[in-house]
Amino acid sequence: MAEFMAGGKRAAGTMSLALIALCTAGAALAHHSDSMFDQNKTVALTGTVREFQWTNPHCYIQLVVKNDKGVDEEWSIEMGAPLHLMGQGWKKSTLKAGDRISVKLAPLRDGTTGGEIREVTTPDGKPLVTP
User: Fold this and answer.
1) Do residues 84 and 91 make contact, with C-beta atoms less than 8 angstroms apart?
2) Most buried residue among 28, 47, 122, 124 by CB atoms closer than 10 A?
């Protein structure tokens, strides 16, 4: 009888963990939604890094780009989390203010100056791996 009760407690614990995982999965997926970005478009930019934000839950490149009228615009470019970027060789010091880079991104659907990173290239043509 003791073995049956121990097995029942184990099964109840397993079921509880499964239920918790199911209940929180939606919130995790919602957080990582990229629906605000137009994945059917690609924008290519070249500019100067104003700031590289090495922060959780996402890193950002603040890139100053001259628009068609020659006026500086700041683009906020979303990247993955530091942990994911480190797995691809990135460090907090990979980009510094003043660095010139070229990027390709999926733009924000609302037309504001921002997007989700696809590619980053240094001035000498060296690609930096991106998520």
Assistant:
1) no
2) 47
